[in-house]
Amino acid sequence: MAAVATLVRRARDYVQTKEFREYLASTHFWGPVANWGLPLAAFKDMRASPEIISGRMTTVLIFYSLAFMRFAYRVQPRNLLLMACHGANVVAQSIQGTRYLLYHYGSIGMTTPADSHNPSATSSSQASAAPASQSPK
To answer: What is the pLDDT of residues 40-99, one digit of tens each?
Structure first.
């Protein structure tokens, strides 16, 4: 318990320093904060239908984030907050890219979470997939 109290005290003391206030007023802080909109939007869109995913834009965002991950690591002082933001975006866009590829070129029967809760949507899609030569009973 004493270790936790020491850690909290050290964090409180650091937050009150001039160095920390200067960091909060810098682009090293606000740039990554603004960039977090990209991965957050991608994670939010994972619940939507894969029909809305743009394959080209997803690919561009992956390479954009990879380039800026390298930049964030190479710049002095290193901007690890920016690097984490772009790392999260690479993960999110890669998942979106996989969903795009599976929907357009792979598994045709991919459903959205909304479809999985609606059994009538699944049964109607299976009924329409039946060959026309079979007569309904």
So the answer is: 999 999 999 999 999 999 999 999 999 999 999 999 989 999 999 999 999 999 999 999
**Residue 84 DSSP label:** H
Nearest in space to 85 (alpha carbons), one of 38, 23, 27? 38
Q: Give the sign of the dihedral formed by CA 30, CA 31, CA 34, CA 39.
A: negative
Q: Taking the C-alpha atoms of 79, 85, 89 and 92 in order, what is their torsion angle to the nearest 10 degrees?
A: 140
Q: What is the pTM of this model?
A: 0.67
Distance (Å, whole) CA 51 – CA 93? 15
CA–CA separation, 125 vs 109, rounded Å? 9
